[in-house]
Amino acid sequence: MGSNSFGKLFRMTTWGESHGEAIGVVVDGCPAGIELSLEEIQKALDRRRPGKNRFTSPRKEADQAKIVSGLFEGKTTGAPISILIPNLDADPSQYDAVKNHYRPGHANYTYLKKYGIFDHRGGGRASARETAARVAAGAIASKLINVQVTGFLKQIGDIIVKEWDQEVNESPIFCPDSKAEKEMIQLIDQMRDEGDSVGGIVGIQTSPLPIGFGEPVYEKLEAELAYAMLSIPASKGIEFGAGMLSSQMSGSTHNDCLDETGTFTTNHCGGTLGGISNGMPLEFRVSFKPTSSIKKVQMTQTLSGESSQMKLPKSARHDPCIAIRAVPVVEAMTSIVLADAFLKMSVYKNNLSD
Amino acid sequence: MGSNSFGKLFRMTTWGESHGEAIGVVVDGCPAGIELSLEEIQKALDRRRPGKNRFTSPRKEADQAKIVSGLFEGKTTGAPISILIPNLDADPSQYDAVKNHYRPGHANYTYLKKYGIFDHRGGGRASARETAARVAAGAIASKLINVQVTGFLKQIGDIIVKEWDQEVNESPIFCPDSKAEKEMIQLIDQMRDEGDSVGGIVGIQTSPLPIGFGEPVYEKLEAELAYAMLSIPASKGIEFGAGMLSSQMSGSTHNDCLDETGTFTTNHCGGTLGGISNGMPLEFRVSFKPTSSIKKVQMTQTLSGESSQMKLPKSARHDPCIAIRAVPVVEAMTSIVLADAFLKMSVYKNNLSD
Amino acid sequence: MGSNSFGKLFRMTTWGESHGEAIGVVVDGCPAGIELSLEEIQKALDRRRPGKNRFTSPRKEADQAKIVSGLFEGKTTGAPISILIPNLDADPSQYDAVKNHYRPGHANYTYLKKYGIFDHRGGGRASARETAARVAAGAIASKLINVQVTGFLKQIGDIIVKEWDQEVNESPIFCPDSKAEKEMIQLIDQMRDEGDSVGGIVGIQTSPLPIGFGEPVYEKLEAELAYAMLSIPASKGIEFGAGMLSSQMSGSTHNDCLDETGTFTTNHCGGTLGGISNGMPLEFRVSFKPTSSIKKVQMTQTLSGESSQMKLPKSARHDPCIAIRAVPVVEAMTSIVLADAFLKMSVYKNNLSD
Amino acid sequence: MGSNSFGKLFRMTTWGESHGEAIGVVVDGCPAGIELSLEEIQKALDRRRPGKNRFTSPRKEADQAKIVSGLFEGKTTGAPISILIPNLDADPSQYDAVKNHYRPGHANYTYLKKYGIFDHRGGGRASARETAARVAAGAIASKLINVQVTGFLKQIGDIIVKEWDQEVNESPIFCPDSKAEKEMIQLIDQMRDEGDSVGGIVGIQTSPLPIGFGEPVYEKLEAELAYAMLSIPASKGIEFGAGMLSSQMSGSTHNDCLDETGTFTTNHCGGTLGGISNGMPLEFRVSFKPTSSIKKVQMTQTLSGESSQMKLPKSARHDPCIAIRAVPVVEAMTSIVLADAFLKMSVYKNNLSD
Fold it and tell me: The complex's ipTM?
């Protein structure tokens, strides 16, 4: 497949299947001399970890990472950083009941048609488990950039965050609005009870970025972020600043103007101009479709081509809203894109001033 | 900057400034033996060409392309295809009046801050002129893939396409709905009169794709398309299938099921599963912000940091809705992504069956 | 550093330091459906393994590899193949005596000057230990191509292989000439006794390659092989076919002609024309400098810049001829280059014939 | 083919066939603010230009380059630099007489077998004409690095440069030894008279490089240079410092030691340690085979598979020693590799010191 690496100068390669003995990531291109501890990586993994509360997949994984190379006396050496995360709670029997079906909304359809094989035991590389490796790499990336990246659950169903009255990390579902949080939890519980699922929108808000992240033409900051976000399983769209609504605005409304102190008075552009960060916070949103694996009856075909109903058995693990667990993944991918852009910037800014 | 190439196996490198003597593109990786004529490239360029009607930029460019390498007796040879497009109507005096201002919503802010230089005469590489080179490359890409790619203007302001009652190419603004077209034209004319601009949404609808375009994990088809689309100047978002609305749907509604004949009954996913095309048409939408260069007074700063009002002079060229001209560019980038995915597929499908 | 990956379509990323707990490799881009067993990888590693006889480094490593991803029921799945090789006999005290010296002929000089840090305990990424990971990847690559790659020790000192009277693998020093082998062993023993070392030349001879490996212009087969070979520690040159001696030949002598059956009567070109394999065996030679770590007194400086004599202590591990252990590494890199070229070929040949 | 780009951060893409209307190069990644004039590029091209004296190909080309993008007021802008070089003296009838033959030692054999097509009129992309584009890019690269790169003809036949008693550029064959030059000219004239050709060795000697060019593991400076040099048509080998002879040396002789002032007393390594420049001049040699196109009778086959004698007609252009014209190309590729390494270095050195 040959498509398991991400980034140009700050580059990660992830490996491992959801039902193998471990997954992992190799980060190449991290400069030497960066302080880094296992605790920082573990902390990031713990935010994403399944099974920690009832709002995510019941799969229980300790996600105890191990750094096996690239660190010496608490600092990066410039050598590739290899991180391993053992799989503990892989339960290959989970999906036995449906292994002969094309599962509606699921990658097993295209994998089987394209490659002729699919590991029915849990999704292989298409599994959300792969995103744990991204989160580990994101923890390293975040050490390179001096930017605070905050992800949050902005919407599920028709419940939308309105006020920002609590810390995102205080919420088990990463929701900053205590009122919306309650309604969201109610909806998630209802979906779980019904064996159904619901989609959601993850928002990103960063501290003001230094000017200069992003390259002209094809490596614009939005382009790199869009590439990163649409590679996350179940993501279906991304919008920056005013986003899809830009289409309804006039230029005189949309243009972000500078006030007397040289500060932008609005951030309709979401933090970039011409693909390059303009000194404002980065603002974008990523939409996630509802989890495809549900316990309701659906029409499909068997692998041998017969029309058939199917539903996941009651005992199967079931994640009613994948958007929750996506929050730390969206954060991680943001940091990774920014770390890569930061290194690119150092090439061309550096030489300019010589 | 080092970011002027796009694609991995089907790879284009564009060059040229909006006010230089020419722009161009080198396409590397196009297989040998593909029939290709200058007419096909010219036809694609003519769709995008500015100045052909009152709905786009008044800059008049013949956009007469020239193929200078890679063709022999009407077929590609496998060697790089180099295409030149002369600039005829570059008018460097256009923006003289505002050359000492940071232009609201414009890339000159970030370019000047990052690189210390910006060619005020017309945007240099950040200019929409660069997209002509993409359209030329897209015409080549479209010969590699057996897919019909149709772009259309789906929305400007709050006017949305509802019915599909005319050929897109019959409409000067690529609008398939004759009623919406009339309202859109009215709005565009109004914006031009007011010296203002309006955003818009471009839709893409393809013929059913063969199964197998797109690679797992980071090179998912949506990820590659998102990367391509967000590299187009003024784009601010992309959504596939149900897109941002997926967040409001339940799994039992969103999942595309197979009917008795093995056909998907819906296309909420927009044509991909697990990042790989599933045999359905590709469906996505790209939003464009309103053109930033307007003739209304706006607050900004001069390059030397003084607060100042500015507006473009009456005589300046003005493009009231950049989304119109974006239609052929979105089409071209779609074809280029598909051509690249097609070549990637040939590596791994090919070897599988050996 | 960001330079730990090799290959374009068949791509490996190696990681790990000589004194960490493990080293490893991730192979991305290996097609699905290739039969692969741990035994095949182990067999390749065993050929390179240090400490197996007195002719190589006394470091004792079991080099017991573990495949942690990418295999399912004995076949590759197309997912990245991650291989771990634990370090057992890392002895950090080995080089304590010289840790404050720039070691003549050694990478610690440039690493310290460039990065400010160097892991004196054993060479870090510059260590020959890294090549074990290449050998593991090479074993996978060799399964993709139907080519027999034979490496052998062609020369050390002034002793040159003349006759080919024994199997390379029967010789503890990979020498196919039993008479030369005896003299070489004598020379190696002498060097060990003197605490000195000697350089050597590794030859590669393959079975006839299919026509078509290698791409025009920059990705010529020789260019890719030269890149691969000169990345092996201690290599100082490469020549193909008549090689450096081509300079002394006339065209009428050097040109390889076709006989009546369409067979080349000579192979002065070493198996390629215009960078593409021509159906003949690949023939090239790689020279290795003598191991820089010796037990003789040499002039150098301390890290603080004082002139100082130094020699490795008697007890230190010492490898009298690194060229011997390089044989399986040169073989592995050859297979990896060929596997990558094979996948590239499948893109463009495949499409040509459509 | 997809293999017409070279370099990672300083990246060139060449295009054009020997018998098309022009060839060219796009250089992407050159930082902004570098002073650059057409004269500098033209001067480099003039050194390589065919037809300027009797020692190279009689093809007469003015090689008048044109810079069509990337420059503004005498400085690079960071945008891609596009250079065009028209073909004037393309004579398609030159090779008509042999168009139905596999030409011994020539790329038409492998191109025809691999791609099914070959432009018999002059070699297409396999032609030495492509190297003019490299020389133009090399002239840009040389502005980035503060290194003097001197190429010279070191050997043809058995005539070897011994003394360095004249400026390389004073010699029509780039030979620094006036005595050897006379003998070489005699040999070349003899080869021309006989319709035969001879190989040669090109040497490179640079001013002392700053420490730090080159990356660990796969992107070692020697590896990048070897990749570059073996991509030049007709090159068959490369060796650094003591090179192939390293194999015959002992470690105690080969190791370059530091004297009391911290200066290396020898340069057996050729200027690198562990793949990174060590502050010494870079020293390497590249061997070129004799031109394959000769006017002597040789056995071969026709394209339809019949055994046949062939020789080039008397009137055909004939280049008795391609190594001469290779000198500026080897220089150019050296500068390009160094420019790329220089930019890479800026990423990791820069961040280290933060």
Answer: 0.96
